[in-house]
Design brief:
By secondary structure, the chain is α/β, with parallel strands linked by helices. It has 3 domains: about 170 residues, Lambda Exonuclease, Chain A (Alpha-Beta Complex); about 25 residues, no CATH class; about 200 residues, Nucleotidyltransferase, domain 5 (2-Layer Sandwich), CATH 3.30.420. It has a 5-stranded mixed sheet, sandwiched between helices. The termini are far apart.
Length: about 475
């Protein structure tokens, strides 16, 4: 039988469903962060059950996670509630999201198509996290969730989903998959040997913002960037990347880069935050998924030619880090000079968060935003494009190319997801006292590498 999970996999890419149904998903162990997200989903589910039973529908007949099938399709509903007055069931689907998404409509329509032939149904609800909830001294369950009725909206999807689920079923019955089933995201593909066999060195998928245009290119047999027809419509950044691939050399607009860097004012600062954003807030005053800034790393160059000095802090003592990290940061970042970051939108957002957390320092934190300079834009906007970036402007893509001595393989913590999870383990007391300092040192080393990487990239740009 085709399950709801199978159907959602089909919507992601038909090839992924075919691989799943034929046991050809490439084995890949779940990362620690993936496991954390699964556990977080289970936590939200347990709280939602408590919310339904104790707050929204106390005393009503709730059937928790029943399974149904109509021979061809199978579901497991989150919750069914029996209405004695009308003698029908209401369906409640639980999601960790903070809003209704299109995929939720498909999800519910699939369930309804199975259920309406088996039990009497009336209302359909999506129970999701209330993004405006602000955590108090204790968890206020009555405000954490929102139940939104979607009966009319989901009904509009039924016909489409009825057709799609039949198409999904037919995919599982095929002896061999069709090439058109393939996804367009090789880096995250669960079956790359099926979706992307013999991928060329410079695949079309690395073109920035190509999206679903990759499908039409693939249908014509074009997989390599070098083979792109001259008539293919490209935006300016894509054209620069294609030029870099075809020549095998970096395309550098040195004049634009130097004009941009000329606006920087000393002292120069290079700033990076590390954060953790849980679905259920850990501390008073936080909203669901709001970032907790638990660490920063800061390099300072006082004047041209000066050696950079370094400042850093990590707080993981079980309490909100914000009141401790803010004065520590402000003491070292001063009130003048440009602050270089990688992804200004994210860093500015964290300063706004910290300003709300620490109102006595709010103005200085908001002033920091006015001093930010986004070093990433030089690469994202196409002023410096190297084919070895593989179409990405992330720090992890740029740094090893421009500064090959600054990689991450020698570090205990090598990416942001591991840093987030490591801090959470420290906060939760899951790290033994004997290992706490070593773990904190590993966090510092990772954040410092990111921040010094910006220093090194800035120096490289200045030397062009």
């Amino acid at each position: 039988m085709l399950t709801k999970s199978d159907f959602l996999t089909f919507l992601d890419a038909p090839m992924h469903l075919w691989a799943k149904s034929h046991d050809q998903i490439d084995p890949k162990p779940r990362s620690g962060y993936d496991q954390h997200l699964a556990q977080q989903g289970q936590q939200v589910e347990a709280l939602a059950k408590q919310y339904l039973e104790q707050i929204l529908l106390p005393g009503q007949d709730l059937v928790w996670q029943p399974s149904f099938n109509d021979v061809q399709f199978q579901i497991r509903a989150d919750a069914l509630v029996w209405d004695e007055t009308t003698e029908v069931y209401d369906l409640y689907e639980i999601k960790s999201a903070t809003s209704v998404q299109k995929v939720h409509q498909y999800d519910l329509a699939f369930q309804i198509l199975v259920l309406e032939g088996i039990i009497p149904l009336h209302h359909t609800y999506l129970l999701h996290i209330n993004k405006s909830y602000q955590h108090g001294q204790e968890l206020e369950l009555e405000h954490l969730f929102t139940a939104k009725e979607l009966s009319a909206e989901v009904a509009e999807y039924k016909q489409e989903v009825a057709q799609l689920r039949q198409a999904a079923w037919q995919v599982t019955q095929l002896a061999k998959p069709q090439p058109s089933f393939a996804c367009i995201k090789p880096q995250s593909c669960p079956c790359p040997t099926l979706c992307h066999p013999n991928l060329p060195e410079n695949p079309i998928y690395s073109l920035p913002y190509l999206g679903k245009k990759a499908v039409s290119l693939r249908e014509t047999g074009t997989l390599a960037i070098e083979e792109l027809p001259e008539s293919f419509n490209l935006n300016p950044r894509q054209r620069i990347y294609v030029e870099a691939i075809r020549t095998g050399k970096a395309v550098i607009d040195n004049q634009a880069i130097q004009a941009s860097l000329a606006g920087l004012q000393y002292p120069l600062f290079f700033l990076d935050y590390e954060t953790f954003n849980p679905a259920v807030p850990l501390f008073p005053g936080y909203h669901p998924y709001e970032h907790i800034v638990f660490q920063y790393s800061l390099f300072k160059i006082e004047e041209p030619g000066a050696q950079p000095s370094h400042f850093e802090a990590v707080f993981a003592d079980g309490s909100d880090p914000a009141p401790k990290i803010v004065p520590h940061l402000l003491e070292n970042i001063g009130d003048r000079g440009s602050i270089l970051v990688w992804n200004q939108v994210f860093e500015a957002g964290r300063n706004k968060d910290l300003a709300r957390r620490c109102p006595l320092h709010a103005q200085r934190l908001l002033n920091i935003i006015e001093r930010l300079y986004d070093l990433m834009l030089i690469f994202r906007e196409g002023q410096y494009v190297d084919p070895r970036f593989q179409g990405s402007a992330s720090l992890k893509a740029v740094l090893p190319v421009l500064c090959s001595e600054l990689q991450y393989g020698d570090l205990t913590i090598q990416n942001g997801e591991t840093a987030m999870l490591t801090w959470y383990h420290l906060h939760s007391g899951l790290i033994s006292p004997a290992d706490r300092q070593t773990t904190i040192d590993a966090l510092k080393a990772y954040c410092k590498r990111d921040t010094y990487g910006m220093v090194a990239i800035w120096e490289h740009l200045c030397s062009l």
